[in-house]
Amino acid sequence: VKVGYENGTTLSLTPEGLIKTLHKKHPDREIPFHQNFLYYRGAVGNNNLPEGGERSSGAYIFRPNGTVVPILSKPTTKLVKGPVVTEIQQKYNNWLSQVIRLYNGSDHVEFQWSVGPIPFQEGLEKPFGKEVITRYTVSTLHNNGIFYTDSNGREMIKRRLNYRPTWQVELLEPVAGNYYPVTTSINIKDINNPSQSLSVITDRSEGGSSLNEGQIELMLHRRLLHDDAFGVGEALNEMAFGAPLVAVGSHYVTLDSCAKAKMLVQEKVLDSWIFISSNQGLSYEKWK
Amino acid sequence: SFDISEAKEVMGVLQHHDSITGTEKAHVASDYARMLTNALKTVELAASFGLGKLMRKGLAQKWILTDSPKFTSCLLLNISSCPETESARSFVITIYNPLSRYVNKLIRFPVVNTQLSYIIRGPNGENIPVQMVPLSEIINIPGRVSDASVEIAFIAKNIPPLGYKSYYVESTKVKSPDFFISEAVELTEP
Questions:
Q1: Contact, A63 vs A177, CB < 8 A?
Q2: Going by DSSP bridges, is the β-strand pair B130-134/B179-181 parallel, antiparallel, or unpaired?
Q3: Most distant CA pair in chain B, distance
Q4: Which of A104, A112, A277 sits opposite B92 (nearest CB)?
Q5: Which residue positions in chain A have pLDDT lower than 50?
Q6: Which residues of chain B have pLDDT under 50?
Q7: Which of B70, B103, B121 faces A267 most closely, judged by CB atoms?
Q8: Cα gap B190→B186, rounded to integer Å
Q9: For residue B94, what is the nearest residue in chain A, using CA coordinates?
């Protein structure tokens, strides 16, 4: 199935309802593009400090126990077409759903995700928490382990996998050790063709990385059941309305140049304000 | 003048690393949410005053608004909940652009009555293409209080820099040619 607009972006979907390719109008090209959800299992330790070897994943520390679990690769998918917006509405399970939006006349794709209440497996002696991520992949893009994040909220800072600029580093925790703060955007570029890039613009600060070639991942929501012994004294297990927290947010994804992505960052971060007011009972002509 | 000092003070408090990263205790997070919500209400009043002033300025001497309309914002639009758009049959949406260049913006707001047609008129009286979109699973969130099962979507084009555009929204029983009802078609089954 192909969906989208002739004057903007078109997506093609697999029979499972997942994105297969993204077709851009300017310049005219089709790019293999994929998005999926996974979760890391949080490490469960005894917090036997100061060694720290047995520290649990918690509010202060992202510490996966080494396993990443893909979340069902065949969501229930509904398609909503129209002249203004096209939506691909996906439900993965009772705690994970997503709306992929294409706007008529726009080049970017919006992914509005809803994660939670995150369940945990009952009956285990030490139930682990889940740290849910989304991954965007352009399989033809080779970034050679280099990615960019705006961690200080001011400029895009160059990052390299398993590398620190001022000392020789050997990362014993290769996932968490390569995660960086993302204030508004994260970006990868092709090393041979820098005009080919993938940018994800967030609506809030998130953790993110590029652990594999052509891939960007971002942490969406975490529910952990053990304190990490860094001082907060409770597990990251927030409740609202009698249930574990639900996080709703959105990403703008663009395969345009970094300069264009920067304009999109401005539109997302300094978003237009919407106000509702009464028309005071007036007809349009009188109101005008 | 209008007072946004409460918002400034709350933003000062929320600079704390616990607030930014979410490493505070749960009840502290709730307190931050309470403070921020209260502050946003004062900002809404300030924005209402500011927009009223901007409108009076824009209308120059030709027309004097004796009472500026009260502008409200829907803080729960992200979960498609907005009592103002759900209950009223006719209202005005004003979009303010804080950037120094023209922008287009997709506007979505929830409505309850799916039997009505919606007409949206732009600042020059032109009819804007409108789409009714069924809401997705995303609305099944604990704590969401709304009867809306659809949203109305339109694109506000060329909102001027540091300026605004107002759109007049009315619901009618007669279907407008610019009103499009879209349905959700199942692509894959559970």
A1: no
A2: parallel
A3: 61
A4: A277
A5: none
A6: 60-64
A7: B103
A8: 10
A9: A275
